[in-house]
Every structure is written in C-alpha cells, then in structure tokens.
Amino acid sequence: MTAQLLGEVGYDRLSLDVVARRIHVSKATLYRHWGGKVQLVGEAVDRWLVDRPEPGDTGSLRGDLMTAITGPGGLSCAGVSSPITGLLTALCVDPDVAEVLRSRVLAATRADVRVILERALRRGDRVSQWAIDLVEPVLLGFAMHQTALRGTTPSRADVGFVVDLVLLPAIRSSDGAR
Prior knowledge:
This protein is mainly α. The longest helix is centred in the middle third of the chain and has 28 residues. The radius of gyration is 18 Å and the shape is elongated.
C-alpha cells in the first residue's frame, strides 16, 4: 500500500496521516511499528522489491534487455517506476531517502542486470567485464528519464534503439571481454 501511495503522491506529500487513513489504522499504530516515514518507506520498498518478478529469460541477450525495461515488472512498468519516481523528489534533499533508494533499488537493479549478463555468458555471448557498470545505469536511467521526466512509457522501438545502438555494442565490446 505504501509503495502505491508513494507512486500516487510522491515522498514529499506522503505522510503517516495519509497512510493511516488509507489503511484505516491510527497514526500512533504506524509510529509504534515503523518509527517514522523513512522506515515505513524503506520497508515498503523492501516488500516491493521482493514481490517483483525475476528478470525474464527470452533466450537472447537483446530480448532479456528489452524485457528488463518493457516486460512484466520491467523498469518502465507503472508498478515499478511509480514508487521510484515518488522517491526521486526527496533523493537530493533527504540523505535517509537517498540511502533507501541507493542501497535497495539500485542494488536490486544491479542484481537483475547481473542475472541477465551471466545468462548471456552461459549462452555463449561475449560480455565485457565492465558491462554491468554500464548496463545498470543506462537501463535505469533511460526508464526513469522516460517515465519521470517525460511522463511517458518508452515505446518498444525506443527501447530497441537504446538496446541495439548503445547497450549491445558496449556489452559485446572486445575491450575487456571475459
């Protein structure tokens, strides 16, 4: 519920009053259990991350990268992008929220990218050693740019453009291939 509210109203307008009204409990009950807004949001993010699907296995690196953005649970899906977008407003002004976002969301995205790249290696694709350091910020950055800044869901054509012209050539670069 908190992740949904976070997507609806953003971190700045999210309060324990708003959450208490939505779930029909007292604000005191929320404070006893979580202690404050950051702790409540942190647990909501943890639950949201646990419930998200594993990275899709399409049988190809290109397909897996496309699915990471546009597939079920992909970075541009409203259920995924909305809570992250809700946290972005507080990222630069609240170090506790920044820590929640960086330590949990970025770590989960990085883990998903690792799964995709390791699967590609097992299939025989060439994957440069530094690919994970490139893919995670490009996937997340592209998805968040489209959904948060432009207010649109990226089209499959746009995602294909980024995957084909940016990610795949960089991932398959012979510079540092493993």
